[in-house]
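INFO batch 0412 | record 1 of 1 | parsing
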Amino acid sequence: MLALPGAVFLLTAAAWAQMGGISTGGGTSRPIGLSGNVALAEGGPLPRKVEIELVCPPNAQIQDRTDAKGAFNVQLGLDRFLGSSDASMSTQASKTGFGGQLSVGRTISQVDGMRIISLMGCYLRAALPGYTSDTYDVSNLRVGDVNTNVGTLFLRRLAGGPGGNTVSVASMTGSGDAGRSLDAARGLIARRQFADAEKELNRVVQAYPDYAAAWQELGEVLQSENRNAEARKAYLEAIARDAKYPAPYLSLARLSATEQNWQDALDKSDALLKLDSTSYPRAYYYNAVAQYNLENYDKAFDSARRAVSLDAAHETPLAEQLLGLLYSMRGDYKAAAEQYRNYLLQVPPQSNVDSIKKRLAEAESHLAAGGPK
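INFO prediction complete | emitting tokens
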């Protein structure tokens, strides 16, 4: 069996640095405005307002939501956190393999706007559980393109997916006042006014304590400020109000992973996957990481392989890295090399890939020497 390498990197949902904005040719920075619509390819109304995400592999970050009819107008770079900052994950398992330091593949320039160079390889998409979205390649934007209509992003139901029905009506909508207050809080979050957003969200959950989506948003704000204990309570409140709401399970799996609480990361990802087994490749990834650190390597292999098979858009390339490691542990160097190559194709060139290149070279060396498989 291959001797296990050093630390591999685990991906959080997002971690964003605060830098300058897009250069518009002068001495100031301006946000990039993108507008458009979201619609179901099969026709009919959207089941709820839909998140608009900016994806710069391996990271995805919510920028805003559509209105009830699917229209959106987002400003890239008005920071929208979705998760906590990186945290150290040093465990006994990491001494022999996976675990190590939490990291992301690239740093994104945020705050007033985004530098054009930061958008290379990035795209815009709609996000609704049970559906896959058209994408808009923002790499095509040029300096001066500060207001662009991207047209319609169509959502197509995933084969065997829940079509968004996993989320109960209670978590998707509140009363008119509650919905407006939640939208106001999201606007404050988009403008990085986190303290004001927290106050607004606390008012919402006090007035409408069964509004699970508001508890979830409150948890995200608190976690973005590294107030993890309070964030956990908010996520658990969301689940208590609506046990069929997927978002807090994923958030808790991520949070528990950052805190090295592998059993809870496993439990929460398992719970989400029981609700929806096809729409959340990242849940399989967190599940695989938890299983690995609990030294359940066969189960880690199954979850990592499922994560990769569902991740057609390669939004979680670290699942391919982990799967490569697990193939190596099994002596399947051909499959391991394939996963490492796939990973290297997906990560930005400025990422730290030396360790993965070393593992790839080791796997290829075994193959050249006529080793197993």
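INFO post-check: Confidence is low (pLDDT under 50) at residues 1-29, 78-117, 160-170.
INFO record closed
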